[in-house]
Amino acid sequence: MELRHLRYFKAVAENGGFARAARLLHVAQSAISGQIRDLEEELGVPLFDRAKRQIRLTYHGELFLKDAKTLLASADSAVANMQRSLRGEVGTLTIGFFAGGTGPFFPAIIKEFKRRFQDVQVSLVEMTTPMHHKALQAGTIDVAFTRPAPPSDAATLHLEHHLHSDRLSAAMLKSHPLAKKRSIFVRELADERFIVVDRNSAPFSFDKVISLCTEAGFSPRIGTTASNAVGAVALVEAGEGVAILSHAWRGNGVVFVPLADRMAFMDLVIAWAPQHENPVLRSFLDVALKKRRKP
Fold it and tell me: N or C: which end of the chain has fewer CB atoms below 10 A?
């Protein structure tokens, strides 16, 4: 039994005859008659009473019509869902992000995607940037708002698109001699004790601090290590030293003095693994990149 048999049977039953069904389906009447006979033989019961001029459903035919309609409706629904899936309109999407690295446009992108694709189940997962790169490769997340991958991994693990550049600032106590300046150069921090975020949690941030200090002509004197940027700000508040961070963070008694160095910024990218790309992900990327380009 095939769906074709059910469609022919339903058409004959609803149109009161083989001739009308044939015209409706643009199929030869003999073909429909043959398919109905095959169906009746397979079921072992007559579906139509052909004794009178106008054929009618038998008792068994009435019962079978209800089930046939249910099956055909399910088949049509499955086809429609598959077509929507191909257009990226249904499915799931898991988005990785890290605290302080979403950029000002992140909430707008998520809201716009949810508005346009209401049948996609969206999950947001906070994790460190090294975990982003591993999760993308493993397929446990579909896309990430993250820092650029190391050059050794970027070409093989995933694709990236630049979204935003975070300017960096020196976080220090309000009582610090440099706190009232509009901006400073990294070289002015040469004698300071540095608070850095652990490299295992934020390798891009850690390496950026080391690189900026090296370019400024000194090696930073690292006093304390924090597990994340929030912890680094807390350590600055406690008087443990200064930290180079995005000015997205705030703390009581702490000021963020912008760094004037040309390379004092960190990029935020949207990243995904091409081997796990699917229609839902392509729909999200389309929304995200268009939303990002809007002024």
Answer: C
